[in-house]
Write the structure tokens for this entry.
Amino acid sequence: MTNSSRYAPDEAAQTARRKGEHIRICLQEEVAGIGITSGFERYRFRHNALPELKFDSISLETDFLGKTLKAPLLVSSMTGGTNEASAINIRLAEAAEARGWAIGLGSMRAAIENEALADSFRIRSIAPTVPVIANLGAVQLGLGYGVEQCRKAVELAEADALVLHLNGMQELFQPEGDTDFSGLLNRIGEVCRQLNVPVGVKEVGWGIDAATAVRLHDAGVAFIDVAGAGGTSWSQVEKYRSSDRMRRAAAEAFADWGIPTAECIREVRDKLPEAVIISSGGLSNGVEAAKSIALGANVAGFGRALLSQAAPSGGSEALMTQFEQIEFELRAAMFGIGAASIADLAATDRIWDESGAIR
């Protein structure tokens, strides 16, 4: 399939316009899930009054996608395809490179439809040493996309990996959404087998449970971003874009939909002890990143929490400070339980829920 055989120029423009609307809504409207949380408040670290380590010696380094991260942290996939999105991605890439975080790009469908929009995703020159993850919607694999388009997304971004996002509920409430999710598992497996970079799968904010994670793992998926509930609800976002009164009203019934992020991490780690897991969905600080890793994640992702500082109206210095604060909070939590490394944090028995120690 060639780009022109599936997408007309007006569709490319529509995709770019939608990306701009998403940024505006996420910055200006209340789009968090209502009546549901990420679940991290259910867990507490058991303080260690005698940690027997030097704070400055605590190491946050970890390996991810064949590279060493200075911290087990990820800028979650957010945006691209517009001038404003380009400015956001540049700022995020500068901070990720400076602090040694991985960075995910927003859906690259706009660039596949119209390569003139590809520059908003080209951040490799800004972030030459950290892992960069290209991104496409898995649903597009049932609408003409295949290995060719996935490979093109990776090449445009000079990416280390590709993530295919699952966003069924968003597509359902999106005015121009695609809702045929049939047969996607086999198509995902085909991309995993044929692409020459690791292929992961992520949700967009409603979570991936253990049974789904096992199916994806068996299909050949290299990493899973659980992207649980408790942060941005994309049915709430799409509610603000819709002129369909029925769907706008129906979106309210789904404001608490999804699986809390902390629950997803525990479920998936329990069923897939060797899997590479990214925790995202509602994370707002470094203590939640520490809890993510203690519960079983390899890397913790931050999305909308970074957006206001990354937007053109924000400040580059403020964004860098936000990255530093998240790292400080993560390291402070490790100091508080006596964990000298990310491996120590992952193995800790000092995280508790109401029923007692997790390990």
In short: Residues 109 and 351 are 40 Å apart (CA to CA). The radius of gyration is 19 Å. Confidence is low (pLDDT under 50) at residues 1-6.
